[in-house]
Amino acid sequence: MTVLASGRVLLFVTASLGMVLAAASANAQSVEDFYSGKRIRFIVGSNPGGAYDAFARVMVPYLRKYIPGHPTFVIENRRGGGGLYASNHLYNAVPKDGSVIGLVERGSVVDPVFNANGNSFFDSRKFNWLGSPSQEVGLGLVRQPSPIKTMADFRKYGLIVSSSTRSSLSSIYPRLFNGMFGTRFKVVEGYKSATEALIALDRGEVEGHIAPASSGVLRAQISPWIESGRAKVVMQIGFKKDPAYPDAEMITDFAETAEDKALFRLMFAQLAMAYPLVAPPEVPGDRVEALRKAFDSTVIDPDFLAAAGKWKLQVNPVSGVQIHELLDRIYETPSDVIDRYRQLTADSAK
């Protein structure tokens, strides 16, 4: 019995030692070894056809070029909940080894701050942010003919605008402006994507659209409408004016109080991380660093810039470190500012 027991102990020790050595071997695996022959799942939190999807597809060949081991990519479009479906999935349901990355909707990134009891089951600060290839300015579009020609007219006349979901910025912004400034937006939600919500304006299903971006893809889409006089950009949303629409007024010019300005700083910070590229939490640090370097190299690659230009995408990158710093500031927003945001968006939706 003693010999048998000793044999069992020896077997247990040997097996345990094998597990330790295997774990040590995995930890010692180089980034290049890990990614060599690997296929990366690239989850995009929107439908095909929009700017998020376009940026993902244009970046893929160059990310592959600069990631050690040169892995292949497969893109998965997972839209839903204003981007929350993809963000929740990346945080909770995918391997945390660097084999899955995502490009998520900017509104979903700050949703945990705005909606503490909502449908975001993640802490954005714990993601590994890789960078954003561009920053954005939002646009307020009005179908013509319309009595609305200036920002002041939004207070005089009601305007029916389109959106995908209640948690998307194209719905949140109009509700917020109604509460802050007495504008008279009425939001029609339920369109399958931001692209479909925008097309609804051209079809005449709605009178306007509050686009939380002015990306090259959107510009190309609305340019014929503006040139033909079917639509007009009346409002810009953000802190830096887009010179392509010089006659459109800035919504920030309406912010006269310190409280309004604080709320805008919170709301528009996400425009600086317009197309955030992310890896899940707990990915090994050396792989995160390799992914960040690949992103940084991609957004200055001349061939990438040329390819982005063909897709009419504007490149104005923000680093992963800068996104982390921005999120730290957003999460530190005083509770009274958050409470005001919640009250305004809820009250103005009634």
Spatial order of the strands forming the largest sheet: 2-1-3-11-4-12
Number of helices: 14
Report the uncertain regions. Answer: 1-26
Order of helices and strands: HHEHEHEHEEHEHEHEHEEHEHHEHH
**How many separate domains?**
2
CATH top-level class of the largest domain: Alpha Beta
Query: Beta-sheet strand percentage?
Result: 15-25%
Class from helix and strand fractions: alpha/beta
Helix content: 40-55%
Number of extended strands:
12
The whole-angstrom Rg is 23 Å
- Largest sheet properties: 6 strands, mixed
SSE blueprint:
Elements: H1 2-28, H2 31-35, E1 39-44, H3 51-66, E2 72-77, H4 84-92, E3 100-103, H5 106-114, E4 128-132, E5 138-143, H6 153-156, E6 159-162, H7 169-181, E7 185-188, H8 194-203, E8 208-211, H9 216-228, E9 231-237, E10 249-250, H10 258-268, E11 277-279, H11 285-298, H12 302-310, E12 318-319, H13 320-331, H14 335-347
Parallel strand pairs: 1-2, 1-3, 6-7, 9-10
Antiparallel strand pairs: 3-11, 4-11, 4-12, 5-8, 5-9
Task: Fill in the keyword field for this structure.
globular; disordered N terminus; D-Maltodextrin-Binding Protein, domain 2; 2 domains; 12 strands; four-stranded mixed beta sheet; six-stranded mixed beta sheet; 14 helices; alpha/beta; 350 residues
